[in-house]
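ok so I'm stuck.
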Amino acid sequence: MRVLRLLLLTIPLVLTGCATGNTEYRAGLVLHQNPDFSFHIPPGWRPAKASDWTSFGANQRPLQKLNDYGKAEFQRMGAAELARHPAVLISSRGSWIDVQFAVNQGIKYSRDYVLTDGEKQAIWQNLDRTLVAAASNTDKPRFSLNFMDVLTFGPNTLLKVNFNREDQRGLTVWTVLGFYGTRHVVTVSHCGLPHAPSEGVEGLDVIAQSFRFESEQVVVQPVAAATTLVAAVSSSEWQQPQVWKPGYEWAYRYESPTGKGTYVWSMDREEIVDGVPHYVIKTGTREIFHRKSDFASTRETLDGVVVLSTKPSRLQLVWPLKIGKTWEQTYVEERPKTRQTLERVDTVTVEAEETVTVPAGTFKTLKVVYRNKKTGTIRYEAWYSLEVKQVVKLRENLETGTRTRELIAFKLR
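replied:
not stuck anymore, here's the structure
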């Protein structure tokens, strides 16, 4: 029975078809929705475009045999091939990484799971038959297994398979990782260069460490990933706001009773609002305007139309910052589209310096608590990091329940 169940895992390893869902490449991440998962793009890799098809190392041999018409058809075929994958990456030297997914049919692994030789043989025989059957009748490849193991990388326990493929393109070496969530299996496959099969394969380790299912649980209990603890910051470093520059990006995941997902804040530009310099943060078609002198929030626009205006600008932080500092502010939120106006009176306190661990790493932060002055209830709590130049965690108390946001990646360059 154990072997029969394990045979099911060969299906997603060779899955082909049209890509579904939605993929974004932001803040050094692959962010996919439906199903929701993310991972870091390894150093030296970038998202592949249709025009990259002829740059992949594995395609160089057949290209040498084609005339101009054949090359054009080969490029057209390549564009269709790339479109079948939710994500494809190319290394600086032409290696390939692709992503596929399928429904999980009950496969799961514990951290101490060890495949027996008999299980490996049974899985490989089934996988070999499936791979050959999926290939073109005019170019039936030959496959040979190099190794197969269940491995643990940080919070992820996954299947790793490495095998050779021989066909009209010559010999290529493939390494496939399988990630198992409660509802889906995601596979990440690497193919190196004909003369350097392992080129860029270390990128799989980066993906294995950083891969996360955002809207479903993994099927094993996670353990804390190894992280580098940021050096403690002294209070003197919190004297004045830091500088945001165009190109800075912060990627977050969120979870609330009404849903889960991911989003990215990008520092787009500086703009003058009512004679005052502001930073403009973009997320999709929404733009958030923060006063440059102190990061106070002034307004938000959607598709260029103001949907929220705050008068005076809401003070998220009052500099310099130190533990125990408290301030109060009265401001009015105006929502022109719905013609709603709301007056708020906040009492804000810098409560503590805390070390916080989120998917992006472990950071020294200042915890700032925002309360409704009239009722004393907590509206939200924010953990700010000097290293990130932004909040790394946010916990909001909404009418629908508690919404938590956590930083999953950032780019400051």
